[in-house]
Write a structure and sequence with these properties.
Number of helices: 8
Low-confidence stretches: 158-167
Strand content: under 5%
Structural class: mainly alpha
Mean pLDDT: 78
Distance between the termini: 91 Å
Radius of gyration: 26 Å
Largest sheet: none
Oligomer: single chain
Length: about 170
């Protein structure tokens, strides 16, 4: 292990790896309210810019959650998933809404897998930000028109059956 001079002189008296680790922990991993506040702010104020790589944002998100957990602050899976969804790019709004409404219970690991899959799909399609929004809008519009047709068919059948019954 390599330590800078100023750190080395503070740790020079430690003779075992365990005691060195404990000293480093005491010096650098303070469970103070200010460090917890900084981490909470990082977590809840995290907003992905359009130019940010998805994987690095997910790694940062996971790191902050891990640091909070090591300081005794844990969140339910649903809160973690909702926080990640709310931090995604503006162009991912349709993905966020679709994912949130399609799940009966939100799970962070499942969400991360879906986000990474979506990111790979967008990259493989060579879609720009505007293209991916338009693609999702057209898919959503297609789904809505199919649902409307199905509903119209059901309504039409029901009304014709009721007319036959009246005759």
């Amino acid at each position: 292990m390599h330590l800078t001079e100023n750190v080395y002189f503070r740790m020079a008296k430690e003779t075992t790896t365990f005691s060195l680790w404990e000293k480093l922990h005491v010096v650098y991993e303070k469970n103070s309210f200010s460090s917890k506040l900084i981490l909470i702010r990082q977590l809840f104020n995290m907003k992905m810019r359009e130019s940010d790589p998805t994987t690095s944002r997910i790694n940062t998100f996971s790191r902050v959650l891990s640091e909070l957990s090591s300081q005794g602050i844990n969140f339910e899976e649903e809160v973690k998933a909702l926080t990640l969804l709310s931090s995604l790019r503006v162009s991912w709004e349709i993905f966020c809404t679709t994912f949130a409404t399609s799940c009966s219970k939100l799970n962070l690991d499942e969400l991360i897998n879906q986000v990474l899959t979506e990111d790979i799909w967008r990259k493989s399609m060579g879609l720009t930000i505007n293209d991916s929004v338009e693609a999702h809008n057209s898919i959503e519009s297609f789904d809505r028109s199919n649902q409307s047709r199905k509903q119209a068919k059901r309504t039409g059948r029901n009304s014709s059956r009721s007319r036959n019954l009246e005759d």
